[in-house]
Amino acid sequence: MSTFLQRFPATRPRRLRRDAAVRAMVREHRLHPSDLILPVFVLEGAGRTEDVASMPGVQRLSLDRLLPLAEQCVTLGVPAMALFPVIDDARKSDDGREALNPEGLVPQVVRTLKARFPQLALMTDVALDPYTAHGQDGLLDPSGYILNDETVEVLVGQALVQAEAGVDMVAPSDMMDGRIGAIREALEAHGHIHTRIMAYSAKYASAFYGPFRDAVGSAGKLGKADKKVYQMDPGNSDEALREVALDLAEGADMVMVKPGLPYLDIVRRVKDEFGVPTFAYQVSGEYAMLKAAAANGWLAHDAVMMESLLAFRRAGADGILSYFALDAARWLREHPLD
Ligand code: PBG
């Protein structure tokens, strides 16, 4: 060995980390506002704003109060919003039939938002949980089992109502078997050839959805019941690939992994295996954890927000649904080198 190599490290990776300019030049993955999708909770009526206690900074809003959020998305370059309706109990039923109402909350909101902000893409959830008196995503048989094929029939109707209203993407989040194929066929048959399907393909039975269920009011309805007979078991990874393969074969344009950070290994496997537009959902419980720690002064809010979102990109996600979408887009605008 030469004296040189004895006296100095052979390579100095730290050279590339010494200042912000060079760090930015060699950064492999970055976040852009166009990677983000903002999920929002919509209330019936007008002039209504309600805080979601378990999601600080997130509110349920009536349509009139939602318009400024849509405008912020447009201004900040966040390309899409995902709509989640909060339905009054009076309209909930065992069969969730309000999901099929062409004059219901979701179709109305879609029509108004598309008229006001045509450039903002809208995504609507296809699942019955906001509409059912029992809080499950599908129809129950007398034993309480969630029926598959009967539920798919209703979901097809729900997706068609959303497509008629002009939504850009329908997003089945119900995890029934065969629903992507059935929805695609119906969309084609009705001439909705441009409606994209973003499939919640690898959706796990996760306790991280707790705050979301508070937000849409399905938590109290579900009680001790869970969704393990249709959502995936958190111990499974190969199964996620089988689910994605099925959804793609049935006609999905984009696939999703959910929850997010605890399932980044799944995001990576899906992206590597299929190379299709792959999205991840940083769900309500992940948001609540970071918010709670930040509120206690245990974590630095903006830093963990941005680091967690960047991690999705590094894992291979093309986009992220996140309640932080607007805050993150604002942060990116103010920190061009970070
Ligand atoms: C229900 C649905 C859920 C979420 C999106 N759609 C909850 C569930 O499956 O119970 C969760 C999103 C979040 O936690 O942020 N169809």
Automatic annotation (TrEMBL):
<dbReference type="GO" id="GO:0004655">
    <property type="term" value="F:porphobilinogen synthase activity"/>
</dbReference>
<keyword id="KW-0456">Lyase</keyword>
<dbReference type="InterPro" id="IPR001731">
    <property type="entry name" value="ALAD"/>
</dbReference>
<comment type="subunit">
    <text>Homooctamer.</text>
</comment>
<comment type="similarity">
    <text>Belongs to the ALAD family.</text>
</comment>
<comment type="pathway">
    <text>Porphyrin-containing compound metabolism; protoporphyrin-IX biosynthesis; coproporphyrinogen-III from 5-aminolevulinate: step 1/4.</text>
</comment>
<dbReference type="GO" id="GO:0008270">
    <property type="term" value="F:zinc ion binding"/>
</dbReference>
<keyword id="KW-0350">Heme biosynthesis</keyword>
<dbReference type="Pfam" id="PF00490">
    <property type="entry name" value="ALAD"/>
</dbReference>
<keyword id="KW-0627">Porphyrin biosynthesis</keyword>
<dbReference type="GO" id="GO:0005829">
    <property type="term" value="C:cytosol"/>
</dbReference>
<keyword id="KW-0479">Metal-binding</keyword>
<dbReference type="InterPro" id="IPR030656">
    <property type="entry name" value="ALAD_AS"/>
</dbReference>
<dbReference type="InterPro" id="IPR013785">
    <property type="entry name" value="Aldolase_TIM"/>
</dbReference>
<keyword id="KW-0460">Magnesium</keyword>
<feature type="active site" description="Schiff-base intermediate with substrate">
    <location>
        <position position="258"/>
    </location>
</feature>
<dbReference type="GO" id="GO:0006782">
    <property type="term" value="P:protoporphyrinogen IX biosynthetic process"/>
</dbReference>
<protein>
    <recommendedName>
        <fullName>Delta-aminolevulinic acid dehydratase</fullName>
        <ecNumber>4.2.1.24</ecNumber>
    </recommendedName>
</protein>
<feature type="binding site">
    <location>
        <position position="243"/>
    </location>
    <ligand>
        <name>Mg(2+)</name>
    </ligand>
</feature>
<feature type="active site" description="Schiff-base intermediate with substrate">
    <location>
        <position position="203"/>
    </location>
</feature>
